[in-house]
Design brief:
Layout: E1 4-9, E2 14-16, E3 19-20, H1 43-56, H2 65-78, E4 86-88, H3 90-98, E5 103-106, E6 109-113, E7 119-124, H4 129-133, E8 140-144, E9 147-148, H5 154-161, E10 168-174, E11 182-187, E12 189-192, E13 196-201, E14 204-209, H6 216-229, E15 234-238, H7 247-255, E16 262-268, E17 273-277, E18 290-294, H8 301-311, E19 316-319, E20 327-333, E21 339-348, E22 364-365, H9 373-384
Parallel strand pairs: 14-15, 15-18, 18-19, 19-22
Antiparallel strand pairs: 1-20, 2-3, 2-6, 4-21, 5-12, 6-7, 8-9, 8-10, 10-11, 13-14, 16-17, 16-21, 20-21
Length: about 375
């Protein structure tokens, strides 16, 4: 396999245990270039700095070539000043490539970093150890097993929290709006990640898609068939707190609700454009009225879904403006197994809208802290019948 992972990534969130959201499916030839010698990089200067450190640094126990090499790579990536690019150790890179099969061991929560660099819980997964232990959306993770997370990256915090089933991790968290932190013990478990769930509310089908994993399409197809069998008169797609996922999967999911047309476009550094279009999938549900629920934690692939539904006029988008993760990233594995997760493009909605940093504005603003989103959508769909 090529070092260039065969999946493009567009994620805002890191899943504790599940890790980064993968998005793939655009033609990666658009982003790949042949190997070339560093151009403009002053290797002699770098070597000079290395020699100074080796010759003069006072503590010889810290003169580990592997650590210094990792630091140099991190420094180059950090110099990009891109919140969506970063260096991954081999351990973390391995976790990324294995965890999107929909099963992992951990506490089951999505995290991201805020403007201050603090690691924040987006949401615990349904029925996860994190949720059962009292971890809440908006919690700031201050410490893990007594170790402060100050100055740590999301990746570093995730690696501390990850662990085998049956073991306990102690988290120090600050609940949203609280003034004092609390300590919460969470027992790690093996988590089966069902990404699609269906609940019928009378003649309205309520579908929750929590993320777009390798299993989402196979989970969605029987749900859609059940909707047709039950003659649903309206569909709610709940993408609140959905941090994203695999692009091939979200393209397939979108294609069940559209007949044709573009789903998303990607622009690379050279201005080249690649388009992912509606695919020939079954079943197709083209006429049943739809509402898509989103919030500020709906990101990346979930924004692709919402953007496609909005631009094609297929569904009403309701809720809050989405996160605004409009970059496309790839994970490039290096010779030692570590990796660079790097932004290689920007994606646009079918109408050519760039959502990076802005998000998708809903057609109807709904404050989910004051209103039950599902009931609001049910009332809306009934009013349109």
């Amino acid at each position: 396999m090529s070092k260039e992972l065969k999946i493009a990534l567009i994620s805002v969130a890191v899943v504790i245990g599940l890790a980064l959201s993968f998005v793939g499916g655009f033609s990666l030839s658009l982003f790949m270039t042949t190997s070339q010698q560093a151009q403009g990089l002053n290797l002699e200067l770098l070597n000079e700095a290395y020699n100074v450190i080796q010759d003069r640094y006072v503590d010889p126990t810290k003169l580990d070539d592997a650590i210094l090499t990792e630091g140099a790579i991190k420094g180059m990536v950090d110099a990009l000043d891109d919140p969506h690019s970063g260096y991954m150790s081999k351990e973390f890179a391995d976790m990324q490539t294995s965890d999107f099969e929909g099963q992992f061991e951990g506490i089951g929560a999505y995290v991201t970093s805020d403007e201050s660099g603090r690691v924040v819980i987006i949401a615990p997964m349904v029925d996860s150890p994190a949720g059962k232990a009292g971890i809440l959306p908006g919690d700031i993770i201050l410490g893990v097993d007594g170790q402060s997370t100050e100055g740590m990256t999301v990746n570093e915090v995730v690696l501390l929290i990850r662990g085998p089933k049956g073991t306990t991790v102690q988290l120090s968290v600050m609940h949203s709006g609280a003034t004092d932190p609390v300590t919460i013990d969470v027992v790690r478990d093996e988590i089966e990640v069902d990404s699609v769930s269906l609940e019928m509310k009378g003649d309205i089908a309520c579908i929750t898609i929590s993320r777009f994993t390798e299993r989402t399409e196979e989970e969605l197809i029987p749900v859609l068939q059940e909707i047709l069998d039950k003659d649903a008169q309206g569909i709610i797609i709940d993408l609140r707190n959905n941090p994203g996922g695999i692009l091939d999967i979200v393209i397939n999911n979108v294609s069940h609700f559209l007949d044709n047309g573009a789903v998303a476009h990607v622009i690379d550094k050279y201005g080249n454009r690649a388009t992912s279009s509606v695919e020939d999938v079954s079943p197709k549900i083209l006429d049943i009225p739809m509402v898509v629920l989103v919030n500020e934690y709906s990101a990346s692939a979930s924004e692709i879904f919402a953007g496609a539904m909005q631009d094609h006029g297929r569904a009403l988008i309701a809720g809050n403006t989405t996160f605004g993760k409009g970059s496309v990233n790839v994970l490039v594995r290096l010779d030692d197994g570590s990796g660079i997760y790097i932004s290689v493009g920007r994606w646009l909605t079918p109408d050519g809208n760039l959502i990076e940093g802005d998000g998708i504005a809903p057609d109807e603003a709904v404050d989910f802290t004051q209103v039950d989103g599902i009931q609001w959508a049910i009332d809306y769909l009934h009013s349109e019948q």
